[in-house]
């Protein structure tokens, strides 16, 4: 009978009823009552049977209703976990048909996530061993791939003959689980946000580090700037101090120079005064010597004694010349007034040459006065004569073997330029620097008693006191010398 | 030998030198060592050539000359100044008529003898003119 019924629910219900010894209450309560009734009324014939039939039908109806309309999914599996039957709720849950599931292994359709399969299997094993399993949570996929979270409870039923069946009750907890998922999502979001925040923080930190570095660099640069500014200030201060030092030194030097200058001026005055005084003081003791020596000489009968006397007289005469020239120079160095008058240079030279004609002849020196007679200068007659005399004497001295002496004059602006040219030994450039110095003598005349070493110095003083200049030119040793001096021309109007 | 020359100088060697040179040329020379002594001799009636040193202590040559002029003692005398200086440095106006020359020290004996000889001849001429007059 029951084999006739194709409905698995009916079949299941029947089997449930026959397997109710396992003590499953709830669903089977009614069924037992029915069975008891069945047992109790079996003695009555057909009516009884019919009544039982009806009762069974009603019961089947009831269980089918429960099976088909249950809010939970019910899967009926055999011992090898092959699906025997599912209720419509399961079809709903997975979005599939009963036909696609029946006869398949529970994991065959891929609804259950593969990583959960071992756990489910061990749970099934446990259930088969102990009779029931724990409430487990399973994440599965619907036919369309969307996730579904299930709460599953297992129950083992032992059939007549020892066969065991599994009933899996599935409750859709996706809604409940969505919170978890949402939480997970939120959590992930939070995590991401956290990560992002972390990244942001890192970026910020990096920025901060860069800023810090920049600030450090800036601080260093600032420090350097400050340091260099300090250095500059220090240098500046040093410079200022040095400047001040220099200024002080300068002032000190200026004072020293002024002091020295006045000292030197004072010493020069002392020198002049001393030389002048010495010269004067020498004149008195020289007087009896100069006066009496010729007499002493004349009284000598011995020629040797006469010669000695001559030598002494020469030296005394030289000494006298030196004294006279010194006094003359001292006077010229002092503030003397010249008696200026219009003077013909030609006439002055002529006079000097005539007075010295014997001396020139003795020295084998030919003289020539080429000066234009019309050239008139403004000069002190005696002083000018002295200049010409000195230059002539000087020239003769440096023409030891004789030679030619030529006087000439040109006019240049307001001056007459007088030249005295000789053919003597000449002057080196080294000597040229010294010839006008007081008491200086060229080496060749170093021991010449006819020279005081003051002749040219006196010439220079005289010429300069007239406002003129004096100088010498020579083309070198053995090529003669020309002395030039200038004197202001006499203004004719 | 008529004494015609007086040498007034505070330096004994110069006095001696002048005496020696002039005496060798036949002149009688009176040496005196100061201006005061010079005036004394003039007051005693000395007439002739007076060689007067400029620089002397107490009374120098110029002062002595002026004093002698003031006393009218230089009539018929010739005065020549002996000086170691380059130029005579006194006001010569007062003595110009009396002082005839400046003889610079040191002097050569020839020059002294000839100069003194010249002055003596002037004096001689003067005296002769006086005597003639």
What does this structure look like?
- The complex is a heterodimer of chains A (493) and B (133).
- Chain A is α+β, with helices and mostly antiparallel strands.
- Among the domains of chain A are: 8-173, PAS domain (Beta-Lactamase, 2-Layer Sandwich); 337-488, Heat Shock Protein 90 (2-Layer Sandwich).
- Helix content of chain A is 57%, strand content 17%.
- Chain A contains 13 helices and 12 strands.
- Chain A has helices spanning 8-18, 27-40, 46-69, 88-94, 98-101, 117-130, 174-298, 303-333, 345-355, 357-362, 381-397, 429-432, 455-465; strands at residues 73-78, 83-86, 136-141, 147-158, 164-172, 340-344, 365-369, 376-380, 403-412, 415-422, 470-474, 481-488.
- A 5-stranded antiparallel sheet of chain A has the order 2-1-5-4-3. A 5-stranded mixed sheet of chain A has the order 7-9-10-12-11.
- In chain A, β1 and β2 form a beta hairpin.
- Chain A is rod-shaped, with a radius of gyration of 78 Å.
- The N and C termini of chain A lie far apart (185 Å).
- By secondary structure, chain B is an alpha/beta fold.
- Chain B has one domain: Response regulator (Rossmann fold), CATH 3.40.50.
- Helix content of chain B is 42%, strand content 21%.
- In chain B, strands 2-1-3-4-5 form a 5-stranded parallel sheet.
- In chain B, β3, α3 (61-70) and β4 form a beta-alpha-beta unit.
- In chain B, α2 (35-43) packs parallel to α3.
- Chain B is globular and about 40 Å long.
- Classes of the chains: A alpha+beta (493), B alpha/beta (133).
- Chains A and B meet through α7 and α8 of A and α1 and α4 of B.
């Amino acid at each position: 009978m029951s084999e006739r019924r194709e409905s698995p629910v009916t079949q299941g219900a029947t089997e449930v009823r026959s397997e109710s010894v396992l003590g499953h209450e709830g669903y089977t309560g009614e069924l037992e009552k029915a069975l008891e009734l069945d047992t109790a009324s079996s003695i009555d014939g057909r009516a009884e049977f019919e009544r039982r039939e009806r009762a069974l039908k009603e019961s089947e109806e009831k269980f089918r209703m429960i099976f088909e309309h249950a809010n939970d999914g019910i899967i009926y599996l055999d011992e090898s976990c092959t699906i025997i039957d599912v209720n419509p709720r399961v079809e709903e849950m997975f979005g599939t048909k009963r036909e696609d599931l029946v006869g398949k292994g529970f994991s065959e359709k891929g609804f259950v996530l593969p990583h959960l399969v071992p756990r489910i299997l061990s749970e099934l094993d446990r259930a088969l061993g102990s009779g029931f399993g724990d409430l487990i949570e399973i994440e599965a996929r619907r036919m369309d791939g969307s996730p579904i979270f299930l709460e599953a409870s297992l129950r083992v039923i032992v059939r007549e003959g020892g066969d065991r069946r599994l009933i899996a009750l599935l409750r859709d907890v996706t809604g409940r689980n969505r919170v978890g998922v949402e939480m997970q999502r939120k959590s992930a979001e939070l995590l991401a946000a956290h990560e992002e925040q972390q990244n942001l923080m890192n970026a910020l930190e990096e920025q901060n580090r860069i800023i810090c570095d920049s600030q450090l660099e800036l601080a260093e640069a600032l420090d350097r700037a400050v340091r260099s500014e300090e250095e500059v200030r220090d240098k500046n201060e040093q410079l200022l101090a040095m400047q001040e030092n220099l200024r002080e030194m300068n002032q000190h030097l200026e004072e020293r120079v002024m002091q020295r200058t006045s000292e030197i001026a004072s010493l020069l005055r002392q020198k002049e005064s001393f030389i002048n005084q010495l010269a004067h003081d020498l004149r008195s003791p020289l007087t009896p010597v100069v006066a009496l020596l010729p007499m002493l000489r004349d009284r000598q009968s011995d020629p040797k004694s006469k010669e000695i006397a001559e030598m002494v007289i020469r030296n005394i005469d030289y000494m006298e010349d030196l004294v006279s020239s010194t006094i003359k120079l001292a006077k010229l160095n002092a503030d003397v007034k010249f008696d200026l008058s219009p003077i013909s240079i030609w006439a002055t030279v002529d006079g000097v040459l005539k007075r010295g004609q014997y001396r020139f002849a003795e020295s084998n020196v030919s003289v020539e006065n080429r000066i234009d007679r019309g050239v008139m200068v403004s000069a002190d007659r005696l002083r000018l004569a002295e200049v010409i005399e000195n230059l002539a004497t000087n020239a003769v001295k440096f023409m030891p073997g004789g030679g030619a002496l030529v006087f000439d004059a040109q006019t240049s602006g307001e001056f007459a330029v007088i030249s005295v040219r000789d053919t003597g030994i000449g002057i080196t450039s080294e000597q040229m620097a010294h010839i006008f110095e007081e008491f200086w003598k060229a080496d060749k005349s170093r021991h010449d008693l006819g020279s005081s070493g003051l002749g040219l110095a006196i010439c220079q003083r005289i010429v300069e006191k007239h406002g003129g200049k004096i100088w010498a030119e020579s083309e070198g040793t053995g090529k003669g010398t020309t002395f030039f001096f200038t004197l202001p021309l006499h203004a004719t109007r | 030998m008529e004494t015609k020359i007086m040498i007034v100088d505070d330096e004994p060697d110069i006095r001696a030198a002048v005496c020696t040179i002039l005496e060798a040329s036949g002149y009688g020379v009176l040496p005196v060592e100061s201006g005061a002594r010079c005036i004394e001799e003039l007051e005693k009636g000395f007439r002739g050539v007076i060689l007067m040193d400029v620089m002397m202590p107490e009374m120098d040559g110029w002062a002595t000359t002026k004093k002698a002029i003031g006393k009218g003692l230089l009539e018929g005398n010739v005065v020549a100044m002996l000086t170691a200086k380059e130029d005579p440095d006194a006001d010569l106006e007062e003595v110009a008529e009396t002082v005839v020359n400046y003889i610079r020290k040191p002097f050569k004996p020839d020059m002294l003898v000839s100069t003194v000889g010249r002055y003596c001849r002037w004096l001689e001429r003067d005296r002769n003119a006086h005597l003639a007059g």
